[in-house]
Design brief:
The protein has 387 residues and is of the alpha/beta class. Helix content is 22%, strand content 18%. The structure holds 2-acetamido-2-deoxy-beta-D-glucopyranose (9 copies). The site of one 2-acetamido-2-deoxy-beta-D-glucopyranose has 3 residues, from loops.
């Protein structure tokens, strides 16, 4: 693990991002590093590292096209001086400004008249159900924001520079639909410089590999929403015919078998652990989550998520493959006033301000597990110098 001066050093603050966001967030936070002259990123390529990305949102909302590039001025009524800050153990804004250090994960959404990178015309990776404008979303102001970390000037992502820097390298996004959104968004941006060839897809078109021939850059997405071995009985609409069988002591080989091929990987899970599931260890059922009538011990999703993360982090810290790993923490809810899967309202047109909404209990639980297990793994890893 790197030192405290690391701009990425783990932070415990709570950020809330609303669904207006395009899938650029993670890309904005991590990829911009690679094209930035003003942010030091010296550790790249030295040792493997697990980094913790902040909460991201944007389940199905990839950025879309707009003909009209005029931002709705009333959408931009953000006044930074009114934003409230929550207590936490992360360095606060004052500290950051005083030391001149830049923590990418502390900042604000600010208006960005330059608008989105791509439109639903210029990018073909936007799927029908993600095509907000085509599907009737009336407002466009949500496309005109960017993340602005306190104390540093984050330049706009430069796809040309990114591809040049990533020559002969490979990236993987490993996880659930949010990971898929991130890949799609990255593809949309990079396609302005070079069109990728699709080299592989699995039967369900959920895991894919693309190659950018002129840059010899390989990009993968691996569908593994639990990251550990799971038998899932969902149809294509996500309707389950039976509960998930989750093996808490076995990683999903879909990603571990490929792990050595990746120079960079963004790993993330979370929400799927809230599903009804039976838990297996040592080839026997040890309990379950949400399975009344089954005469099994309710172990809780937190039990499973913690075990899973330990297994995942142990694998990464124990691997002799040198890669740069970002761990993305779980997303907040996809809706307001509803469960992550069940709808609710989704009518925000501007980012929520810090402190304006609270995380739900399950999200807090999940996030705390992530932070605890990540820090444990980071400490372990530092001893061996490979984390
Ligand atoms: C922001 O709010 C503060 C205090 O409410 C006010 O003094 C300031 O003029 C506002 N700034 C803008 C740009 O609206
Ligand atoms: C923030 O910290 C202050 C002083 O330590 C405390 O009184 C307050 O309750 C805290 N607020 C939150 C939201 O934790
Ligand atoms: C932030 O840090 C500065 C410098 O250490 C300190 O004076 C200030 O009280 C802190 N503010 C909050 C809100 O914790
Ligand atoms: C793009 O969005 C516009 C609405 O802004 C819609 O009319 C058009 O059909 C969409 N085009 C594609 C290719 O999705
Ligand atoms: C990429 O790989 C090719 C072939 O191995 C090599 O000639 C070239 O120098 C490499 N470029 C970089 C930037 O590593
Ligand atoms: C492409 O990159 C791989 C490493 O990822 C390297 O082995 C290979 O030689 C490169 N090919 C070319 C044509 O540069
Ligand atoms: C599974 O087996 C291992 C080693 O045999 C043991 O340490 C562990 O406690 C077992 N776990 C459960 C849940 O029985
Ligand atoms: C529930 O499981 C326990 C322990 O496995 C067993 O003793 C008990 O008979 C079971 N109860 C029912 C109603 O099946
Ligand atoms: C969104 O919809 C909910 C429920 O209909 C309503 O209570 C809320 O005020 C709306 N929020 C905005 C920003 O329009």
């Amino acid at each position: 693990m790197r030192s405290d001066s690391n701009p990425f050093s783990s932070t415990k603050h709570k950020h809330f991002f609303v669904k207006f966001a395009v899938s650029l967030l993670l890309i904005g936070l991590s990829f911009r590093l690679f094209v930035s002259d003003s942010i030091s990123f010296s550790s790249v390529g030295e040792t493997p590292a697990i980094e913790q990305a902040t909460n991201t949102e944007s389940p199905e909302a990839n950025a879309l096209s707009i003909e009209d590039k005029e931002p709705g001025s009333t959408d931009f009524a953000v006044n930074g001086s009114q934003i409230q800050f929550s207590n936490d153990s992360a360095p606060n804004r004052t500290q950051i400004l005083e030391t001149g250090e830049c923590d990418l994960f502390i900042g604000d959404w600010i208006p960005d008249p330059s608008g989105p990178f791509y439109t639903n015309r210029s990018c073909l990776a936007i799927e029908g159900h993600q095509n907000c404008m085509k599907n009737g979303r009336p407002d466009t102001g949500y496309l005109y924001w960017r993340w602005n970390p306190v104390g540093c000037d984050l330049p706009r992502f430069n796809p040309k520079k990114f591809l040049d820097l990533m020559r002969n390298k490979s990236w993987a996004f490993i996880g659930d639909s949010i990971s898929r959104n991130h890949v799609q968004s990255l593809l949309c941006i990079l396609s302005q410089v070079e069109q990728a060839d699709e080299m592989y897809h699995d039967k369900e078109y959920r895991s894919k590999i693309w190659h950018f021939p002129a840059h010899n850059f390989t990009l993968s997405v691996i569908w593994t929403p639990f990251l550990i071995k799971a038998d899932v009985f969902d149809d294509m609409n996500g309707v389950s015919s039976s509960e998930v069988q989750l093996h808490l002591d076995v990683l999903d080989h879909k990603w571990t078998n490929e792990y050595r091929n990746f120079d960079y990987a963004v790993i993330a899970g979370g929400k799927w652990f809230l599903k009804t599931a039976l838990y297996h260890e040592n080839d026997s059922v040890t309990g379950c989550h949400h399975c009344p009538g089954k005469n099994l011990t309710e172990l809780g999703f937190d039990h499973a998520y913690r075990k899973a993360l330990r297994l995942i982090f142990d694998f990464i810290t124990g691997s002799d493959h040198s890669s740069f790993i970002f761990f993305r923490t779980t997303t907040p809810d996809h809706f307001e006033n509803g469960e992550w899967f069940s709808g609710g309202s989704c009518n925000r047109t501007v980012p929520s301000k810090e402190g304006e909404i609270d995380m739900r209990d399950v999200d807090i639980t999940m996030r705390n597990i992530e932070l605890e297990e990540f820090e444990k793994a980071a400490e372990l890893g530092s001893g061996k110098g490979r984390f």
